[in-house]
Amino acid sequence: MADLAIHTQELTKRYGRRRGLSGLDLSVQTGEVYGFLGPNGAGKTTTIRLLLDLIRPTSGHLELLGGDPRRDGVALRRRVGYLPGDFTVDGRQTALELLTYLGNLRGGVPRARMTALAERLDLDLTVRIRSLSKGNRQKVGLVQAFMHVPELFILDEPTSGLDPLLQQTFLAMVREARTAGQTVFMSSHVMSEVQATADRVGIVRDGVMVAVERVEELRERAVRQVEIHFEDPVTVAEFEVLPGVSDVTVSVGVLRCRLNGRADALVKAAARHTVIGLRSEEPDLEELFVTYYRGAEHVAA
User: Phi/psi at 194 (nearest 5 deg)?
Assistant: First the structure.
């Protein structure tokens, strides 16, 4: 398992009669960005707390960076950048005081590193934490997760409270971490941030993993809305028989349709005519995510 940053087998957690996780199998490759998707209550935070030995499993096996989170917890957590879903700390300290304290616990972090991250996230380090808004507290959480350059990031809903511009800054930081060979395990219910950064996604529902896919494969299967402008008239009949093409309409030299899967057949058919414009909406993982959930509901029924 040397190439796996996270590995679980049949991981199960019960809270009395209530089930948190049920037989979760999870494998995250070293150096990849893994999006862990699901709505609130699906089991994402429970999984993260188990990985960090903040709670103990009812049954099953788990490894973090090749070690046992229970036996090797202190050493492993030094190598992890963790951002909880609810970042709560002593509000009497300034952001700089807190970050310095946490950095010292990790063996020391250069102040220049903290300052650079704070400037990038537009965070004032001199303000007491209790005076900060939720979004600014989230920035403090991100700085403490990134500042010691960990091997593995475990981030629970990391963009909660951030404005759209800073969300883009965070996504750039994630891409840079992947380029540097770091591993990012990121739980989220926001499709756009996962679609922009992840190599693979795992979709969890009611504590059960319902799918694990590469993002490009999801995109290939997702439905697109396509609009093609032709110089000369075309007919519906020519295009409605193509694989993956549906809901074809033609009006004044403009063809509109839905495309499910690869575009090869549609592009080759269009190339038999003079194309003067083409628009294809990027496939949205949101639709596919909802499809998996509906499928799981049908199976359960």
Answer: -75, -40
pTM equals 0.79
11 φ/ψ angles, rounded to the nearest 5 degrees = -70, 125
Alpha-carbon torsion (145, 149, 150, 155), positive or negative? positive
Q: Where are the alpha helices (DSSP H) in 8-110?
A: 44-51, 73-78, 95-105
- Could you tell me the mean pLDDT of each successive run of 10 residues in the chain, 301 residues long? 87 86 94 89 90 94 94 91 88 93 90 96 95 93 96 94 91 96 90 83 88 79 87 95 94 92 92 95 61 51 37
**Closest alpha carbon to 239 in 267, 220, 261:** 267
CB under 8 Å, gap of 24 or more: what pairs does 210-216 form? 210/292, 210/293, 210/295, 210/296, 211/292, 215/35, 215/285
Q: How far is CA 121 from the centre of its chain?
A: 20
